Amino acid sequence: MKAVWKGQVLAESDETIIIEGNHYFPPTSINKSFFKDSNTHTICPWKGEASYYTLEVDGVQNEDAAWYYPKCKPLAEQIQGYIAFWKGVEIS
Question: By CB atoms within 10 Å of each CB, which of 22, 60, 62, 73 scores lowest?
Fold first, then answer.
């Protein structure tokens, strides 16, 4: 699987985990040069607190377009640290 935005491969892995229709990519599969830390956090009742990344490609930002769970609740431990995408990021 690949996560692509603005023609750049943000992440690529054959070991994504699908939960609620989202592909979660292993942290070792991302190209960190496109990821900027965000101060945004949200809560999922069964996964825990999500943290976000803003993506940046060629000076264009896609705010909070990737998220991950740094510390998951027990039911979601298999995706701890894995990254998922939205906001126009193509998964194929």
Answer: 60
